[in-house]
Design goal:
Layout (H helix, E strand, L loop, with lengths): L4 E10 L7 E7 L4 H12 L7 E5 L2 E4 L12 E2 L5 H8 L3 E6 L5 E12 L8 E6 L9 H13 L6 H7 L11 H14 L11
Length: 200
């Protein structure tokens, strides 16, 4: 990464989940971590209903909780950018943990750097494979059990799980256009507003 680096291509894979759930995106290097969180929520199809943290090595970033008495407080994700993680830790792989109960671990690999390119229209979804698991399914082990139950009509939990989860859930079918539109909407929201010029 040089001083001229403006964007990075990332490959994000949901750990311990089969079939593979993966997203490839291009994001600005100066993207704030709270916005990277929102980008990943939209790219995967999560509902942003739980807490999150990014971590690289021993350093963690999230939303500090003033009522947390355990002593562990992450650095504020609203005040840190992706480039800060790279500069401070030298990491080429970052983890994004979503939902501390289900513990969805997203492995973020920094694949390719772009120099002197415009960041307009970013973040941008390049590739999507695999459907995101349903929220509150119980993490990777619960998701495996869920897929087993809905895939086997003789399974004792088949009917219950089929009714509990999304209708006709297929882990291999991903609505890329919907995910792309959701990510694109973020880039429109975060565009710097131009000041109106007064006419005399």
């Amino acid at each position: 990464m040089s001083l001229n680096t403006t964007a990075v291509r990332i490959k994000v894979t949901l750990k311990d989940v089969k079939p593979e759930v993966m997203r490839r995106l291009v994001v600005p290097l100066t993207l704030r971590l709270d916005r990277l969180h929102l980008t990943l929520q939209e790219a995967f199809g999560w509902t942003n209903s739980h807490l999150f943290e990014f971590f690289a090595g021993e350093v963690r970033w999230g939303i500090p909780d003033p009522h947390n008495d355990y002593g562990h407080q992450p650095m504020d994700a609203r005040k840190a950018r992706l480039c800060d993680i790279v500069r401070e830790t030298g990491a080429k792989t970052i983890h994004y943990l979503y939902d501390f109960g289900d513990s969805w671990d997203h492995v973020i690999k920094l694949e390719k750097w772009f120099e002197n390119t415009t960041t307009e229209g970013l973040p941008f979804l390049l590739e999507a494979a695999g459907r995101c698991p349903p929220e509150d399914v119980g993490g990777a082990p619960g998701y495996a059990e869920y897929l087993e139950a809905i895939g086997d009509p003789t399974h004792p939990e088949h009917e219950h799980m089929r009714l509990w989860g999304p209708e006709r859930f297929d882990p291999n079918v991903v609505d890329r256009k919907a995910l792309e539109a959701a990510v694109n909407a973020l880039s429109d929201t975060w565009k710097p507003r131009r000041r109106a010029t007064r006419t005399k």
